[in-house]
Amino acid sequence: MKSAQLLTSRRTIITGLASSGGLLLVGCSDTQPPTYGNVLRMADNLTYRAQRLLLPRLSLAREYDTHDITSIPAIGTTDPADPHQGSYNEKNGVIYQQLRDGQFANWRLRIEGNVSRPASFSLSDLQRFPARTQITKHTCEEGWSAIAAWTGVPLRRVLEAAGIRPSARFVNLYAFDDAAESIDMLDALHPQTILAYGMNGRDLPIAHGAPLRLRVERQLGYKSLKFVHRIVITDRFEDLGKISEPRNGWAWYVGI
Ligand SMILES: Nc1nc2c(c(=O)[nH]1)N[C@H]1C(S)=C(S)[C@@H](COP(=O)(O)O)O[C@H]1N2
Ligand SMILES: [Mo]
To answer: Between vectors from CA 134 to CA 129 and to CA 139, what angle results, nearest 5°?
Structure first.
């Protein structure tokens, strides 16, 4: 019995390895993070496959207590309306300034792409969904981490309200600065993946992404896009253009 079990598990491991090897050979298919033909970037595929293989599908990131909360710096864009910031987008920067002047009353989150009911939600619409608060550790690729409490609506709820089609595979999110992110459906439907409008018991501050940011707790900090205003659901991996991670030399999948 024991040896039979061992054999089975060994076979699973071998099959797993063989399938990641196969994927390496296949390279850039529409089901995989893109490598753009660069051998060094093939590691993205491996990290992605290994994490998806080894981690239970819905394993939770650790959650902390209120007394664990630390101070947290604001990094990257801290004001999309400030033309002096690195990722400033002229058109969206002006829109952001107007929305902020109106306390985000006219702000809307658009959900489009491959959904059966494209939707548009105001902040109060989103606040009417059941909320989730989680105290988690943010880990930045620059080498620092911080613990904060995030309150928001699970992304899953919002996607379901718009009607996820069975063929949906990726969720692309766009921000008011020149930043965008995409995550796969597994991360999108994960219970700790939320669209946060609150931080440490208050409204989300501007510098941390007001009025709405993504929290995707099982990946590095840069996946947690701030200033989100548009979400597009797609059937295949899409290059998000010149602002995309792969084109800028950043890994698409950064599981922790
Ligand atoms: N729109 C947008 N989102 C962003 C960034 C950014 O520059 N613009 N920076 C990312 C990085 S690198 C980190 S570490 C976190 C920082 O979040 P914080 O400012 O709330 O600490 O936001 C991420 N999300
Ligand atoms: Mo970061």
So the answer is: 125
